[in-house]
Each structure stands twice: as structure tokens, then as C-alpha cells.
# Entry
Amino acid sequence: MEKDTLCVHAVPIPHNTTGAVSMPIYQSATFAHPDIGETSGYDYTRLQNPTREHLEQTVAALEHGLDAMAFSSGMAAISLLLESFQPGDHIITSNDLYGGSHRLFDHIGQKNGLSFTAVDTSDLEAITAALQENTRALYIETPTNPMMQVTDIKAAAEIARRHDLLVIVDNTFLTPHFQQPLELGADVVIHSGTKYLGGHNDTLAGFLIVNDPALSSQLRFLYKTVGSCLSPFDSWLLLRGIKTLALRVEKQQANALSIAQWLKTQPHVKAVFYVGLPEHPGYAISCQQASGFGSMISLRVDSKEIAEQVLRRISLIQFAESLGGTESLLTYPMMQTHADLPPAEREAKGIDDCLLRLSVGIENADDLIADLAQALA
# Structure
């Protein structure tokens, strides 16, 4: 079954005596037992719920995984994953990550006894150089947020295998429609389901997807214990969003390529970071490991004043956090997604007062370009 069909028909609706085309919302916290020592398969929604189970099976199928767990947010998913490590463990991470991930690692993970080394994971030698005796995992974003660095997942996973490391890949930017990290050697795939999977800027969600039964069992135990599961109604919203995933991301990608090429011609734009441009350093690797480039663009303008002018003048594009929805959004990373990073660390990553991040939506590309043109003028 092709990926666009999987988005609609990945898993048959269970218990479907009515012929419902849409998965029902089982808005129940608890389920009655048929008899002593018997169960319908559902006991308490924190453990499992039919609507959430259907969503999890759908996402697992899209990522070619064995199991998927749906969380109340992407950060909830990462937080639970960290609970699978022990105090004293060391994790190598990409040095350009979503700001919330930096915050979680630096302030919560370290408090709980974990240590982290951030490196440019697109540099395989840097990964090897960061290895320690207590290293337990390699955590990768690719493309990274917001500088769009690309890591060779397969090559990084080969390094990890030699040192018995868990390979974790945040696949939020490309989605399973364009990239499937488990098939490239990853052990765990992360999604902020809030973004492309939900796709409508109306629901928070997160996912962990695995293909190993032992790891699934370990994470499922933590999942039912910590209780950060996705609600039945939000699970249904994610199911609805996923049905149009393929259509949306293909349209968004086409728009992004047109906009990135146009931005290159603008005098106030000094750099365009888009993986789909042939001159991007990660273009060749992207062509090998992904079937598309996504629709996230970062751009550097020539002054703070121009950056602020663009943010104030855009009208069709909205000045807002988040990404991946039907609406195009423009973000100022230094003041929004990465505001909690120390200024020196933030600027060393290239996240300065001239950097903007554009999440391209499904609007007409010419209309989006016209909006950017008047904002840059």
C-alpha cells in the first residue's frame, strides 16, 4: 500500500459493527470488566483507549514500526523517553535542536543525573569524538531546528551500533511521508504530532515509535506509570489530520521550494536555509535518505530592523510559534522557540536577531511571495 493510501487506510477500524467510516471517539476514562479476571482489552484510558490505540497503530504503520505511543505533547514524549535512562548515563545530541529540547536536557535531564554532549551530528567524526564510556544514546534532529542541518542517519546509526547506543531521531520536520528513520537504523522515532501529523494548528500531541519488542515493553511500562497519554478526542483529531498528511506536505513542499528560490533573489536576504536547494550542504544526503525536503525555511536578513519590519508587515503569513499546519507561520527564534538559550550559546548556533524561520502552509505560493515582498520592501 502506498504512503498516501496508508494515511487514509493504514489500519481497519476495529469493533466496527456500524460501518462507521470515521473512527469513533471512545470518551471514557474506564471500562467495565466482563467477569472476574476478564477484560475487554481496555481497562483504564491511561493504559489504553480504542481511539488512541487506532491512532497509535496508524502512526506505527506509517513509520514501519512495531509500536507507537501517543502523548499529550511532543515534549511529553521526549520526557518519558528520558525516564528510560539511569542517573550517570550520557547522551550525545545534535547541537542545533528545538529550544524546548535544549531546555529539557539542560534543566531537567541534568537535574536527574543525565549528562549531554551537543555536537554537529552531520559531522560523523564529531559524534565519534564525543563518545564516553557511559554514553548510552545518540539523539538526532534532521533537518535541525532552526538551522536545517542534515545528519546521515544510516552512517550515524552504524557508529552507534559499534558502541551499543540507542539511536533516537526526531522526524517532525519531514514526517513519515518523506523520511522513515527506523528503516535507516534508528531505534526510536519522535514526532511532535502538533505539527504536520495534526496539521491544523489546533491540537497538541507527541509520539514515540519503536520496532523492538523489549524497548516497546519498557516504554509501555513507563507510559502507563507516568500517565502522559493523549486524550481520546485529541487522538481523533490526529487521526483526522493524518488522512490529509500526504496532500498537505506535498503542497507545502512545492510552495517552499518556490519561496526559497525567490528569497535567494531578494537584496535584504543574506542567506536561505532550505534543504531542497541543491547548494545546501545536506542536499545530497537528503536525496539518499528521504523522498522529500519538507517545507521549513530559515532565512537571515541583513539587519535586526529588517527582521522586525518583516514580522510587523506580514499579513497573510502570521507571526506565531509552531509549524507544520495549513497556515504559513513566521517565527523569530531568538525571541520565541530559542529564547531560553543563553545569548552567547544561541548566537554561536547562528540564532541571532537577523534569523527568521518560516513554516510554509498550503496557501497559493504566489500569494505568500507577494506578502513577503511587501514585508521586505
